User: What shape does this take?
Amino acid sequence: MAKNLLETINSPADVKKLAERDLPQLAQEVRNELVRVLSADNPKSVGGHLGPNLGVVELTIAMHRVFSTPSDKFVFDVSHQGYVHKMLTGRRERFDTIRQYEGLNGFLLRSESEHDCYGAGHAGTALSAALGMAVGRDLRGGDEHVVCVAGDAALTCGVSYEALNNAAEQTRRFIVVLNDNEWSIAKNVGAIATYLNRIATHPTYSHLHEKASHFVKMIGGQFALDLAHKMEAGVKNLLLPSVIFEELGLRYYGPIDGHDIPLLIKTFQFLKTQNEPVILHILTQKGRGYAPAIEKPDKFHGLGKFEPKTGATKPTASPTFSEIFGRALSKFAEQNNRLVAITAAMPTGTGLVSFAEAHPTRYFDVGIAEEHAALFACGLAVQGFKPFLAIYSTFMQRAYDMIVHDMALQNLNIALCMDRGGLSGDDGPTHHGLFDIGYLRHIPNLVFCTPKDEAEFVDMLWTMNHYVGGPIAIRYPRGVGTGAKPADQPRLLEIGKSEVVRHGTTQPARVALFGLGAMCSMAEAAAVMLEARGISAAVINPRWIKPLDTGTLEFYGRSVEVICTFEDHVLHNGYGCSVMEHFSEEGIAVPIVRVGWPDQFVEHGSVEVLRSKHGLTAESAVERILALLPEKTVEVPVVRA
Assistant: This one.
């Protein structure tokens, strides 16, 4: 039996020690480990980004073979494809803890390893950051290499072009690897994807490129170097008078096979000698080496625990909020021909796959371009359409200026649908949607709601569909809720009116619990605990973050002894903060307990573990409420002799 090479890799130096002929075996062992750790074969698995990492195995091995981290810098766009890098940089023995509480993060973190020079979790950041690092190196007189690895999906981000526009003028040594697998999370869209595909598939280019690759492999002095340059330029000029990368000042090489380790090594060795910004276009296969991931690249981009032989995942007992969203919107669009749906490269994640199938002419995937998506929605709204813009809460941050300057200022009828509002669990701080209340509730003209369960979610979407007063936003959690089945005919909700879920066992109640959105169930659990102690507690489902239901707030603020707010959001500038502001303005001095996330970036881990650690539990809320409740004195009757 062949020796297990992966078990000998404890640092990048160990990759360099292997014979080149052994590297394909190492690549296969890495793939085996990826499937094992992320699948049900690992009892602790919570899944992860399998497809992207299977596609960059050879690339990562070749990079560590040629370059030397941490002195040389690798900047991965998004960094969800950094699992192989983690394995090769001293974290192999902890790899089975990935995305688990207190285990390895699913993205690169500067605090996790000296080999992670730059953290990420969102797309399009790598080119600008890497260029800044290259310029910083130049300013301090360093000689290390800066290698930026960006997928072709990064070229759907406007910020990537802002970096490319500056690269040639600001540094002379900069290596960009364009990892072209035609996918981001979904199939890439737009002119750039078509452009790259044209380069990769042109038969004349393919034929001549083999000759160009031969010269790269046979580098031997200035003559061969010049000849390789001339041949590359000649091939590109034959195809296109102006190649976009060359026009931006980056010398373009490729496309080459991103799974050919010897070719990658030779090419990187060549690129190390170049004194100009270069871009290497490599072609890879997302999910390489694992049939289920190749057959369903979107599913295996990021998924939970799966059965390794078939790739099957355990279905959820109830549909997720995302799935309900897509189905409901599809149904509404049958009655409203002005309804359109927009996403930023997340048709599966946002549940819009079903809408795209039912209404293809009214579905728009703009790529990883949230700013454009928001402005595009504004243009559609000006033409009388009702855009539903579906973007994760953590990604909606990227369109903030457009929400303020274009949507709200012009009071356009746009529905902002923020999936993953609240903790995103295993994905960690780059994906937690814990800031959207704070960045939206103060914007004039904007209405903002959040549902307690799936049935109310559809009612809110129906209300948003009919709302014509300007921009309206909704936040909803990842995964499934209580399982409440939506009604066949949704109802219109009154804007700014909350729901009293329970009035308390006696009147007036001593405590009022305001459970925002999915946290309403936690408020109900706290009420049960309080009433078991003989303390009457009312539970209110606020529904509306903006406008506040001031009437209900003031009623309970003046009649109870303690108010408690629950929210799946940071406490700073959150829902509880808005309640405190209103009470302060009205002179209501009732004590308030606020349950929510602290002023820090919350780590990754299961929702249950993290809520327990940070005090977002019914038990913790009850303890804090009891500490504020005044003791009730009991009058003992006097017995006279």
